[in-house]
Amino acid sequence: MVIGLFGGSFNPPHEGHRLVADIALRRLGLDQLWWMVTPGNPLKARNGLKPLSQRIALCEAMASDPRIKVTAFEKRLGTSYTARTLEQVKKRNRHVHFIWIMGADNLKSFHLWQNWRKIAETFPIAVIDRPGSTLSYLSSKMAHGFERARVDEEDAGVLWRRKPPAWTFIHGPRSTLSSTALRGE
After folding, report:
1. 64 in helix, strand or coil?
2. What positions does the domain Cytidyltransferase-like occupy (predicted)?
3. pLDDT value at position 53?
4. Fewest Cβ atoms nearer than 10 Å: which of 3, 88, 93, 118?
5. Which one is predicted more confidently, 166 or 176?
């Protein structure tokens, strides 16, 4: 079983999230994609954050593909940092191959995440192109630090077989929608 993990606040979820999900499902050959709706992002202000239950309901309404599973297990686990959450996910699902999915807009600040190197050394990572972030890998500390671990996007379908660190940058259609813009911030 190959599962993509796509985390975020989804505040609100939008067509751009669904586009990233569609690209990940198709290009990575995923059996499932888990939308990990986080209670809050330690790197973002919490003002304007809709209640978790509301964001989950909105995500479920948007996730029309049956392979997409909307989860909020980060809340149940009591973790607030991605590295800790992913550690628990891996520990509880030892026979599953996971790929961490992120938009290219997050690649720029990935080095600010707690234990970001541990994430990259534990999970293959698929970075999906986002408007204005296509060249983010050129200045990303993660991309530079793990340059030798980059997998050509033509081989994205076998990324799950690669021993981490392994990552790829997937180009494709991009949506200009963003949660920040939809909130009017």
Report:
1. coil
2. 5-183
3. 95
4. 93
5. 166
